[in-house]
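Whiteboard transcription, Tuesday session. T.W. wrote the C-alpha cells on the left side:
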C-alpha cells in the first residue's frame, strides 16, 4: 500500500531522525516534511513505532495509508514534487 508520512517537528535533530527513519524504509522525500512510498502493513506499523520513539509530545507525525484508487484521484495543484524522485512508482500515473 502507498503510505504518506507527514510531520511537523520543531527540533532539527529530531526532524532529521524522523527523515532518516523514513528513508530507511525506502520512502521518497516529496517535500521537506513529506515522504511517500510503498510499504506493507507491518512496515507501516513499525515505521510509526520508530517515529513515536524519537519525537517529543509537542511534535506531530502522520502516517497515512492510501489505496492506489484513492491515489489516482489526487488533484495536484501547483508545482508538486520532483517527478524524478518518484519515477517508477505509482506516482507516475498521476501526471
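and on the right, the sequence the group agreed on:
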Amino acid at each position: 500500500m502507498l503510505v504518506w508520512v507527514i510531520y511537523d517537528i520543531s527540533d532539527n535533530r529530531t526532524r532529521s531522525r524522523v527523515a532518516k527513519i523514513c528513508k530507511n524504509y525506502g520512502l521518497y522525500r516529496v517535500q521537506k516534511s513529506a515522504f511517500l512510498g510503498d510499504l506493507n502493513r507491518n512496515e507501516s506499523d513499525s515505521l510509526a513505532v520508530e517515529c513515536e520513539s524519537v519525537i517529543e509530545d509537542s511534535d506531530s507525525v502522520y502516517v497515512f495509508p492510501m489505496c492506489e484508487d484513492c491515489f489516482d484521484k489526487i488533484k495536484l495543484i501547483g508545482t508538486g514534487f520532483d517527478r524524478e524522485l518518484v519515477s517508477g512508482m505509482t506516482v507516475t500515473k498521476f501526471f
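Someone added at the bottom: Confidence is low (pLDDT under 50) at residues 91-95.
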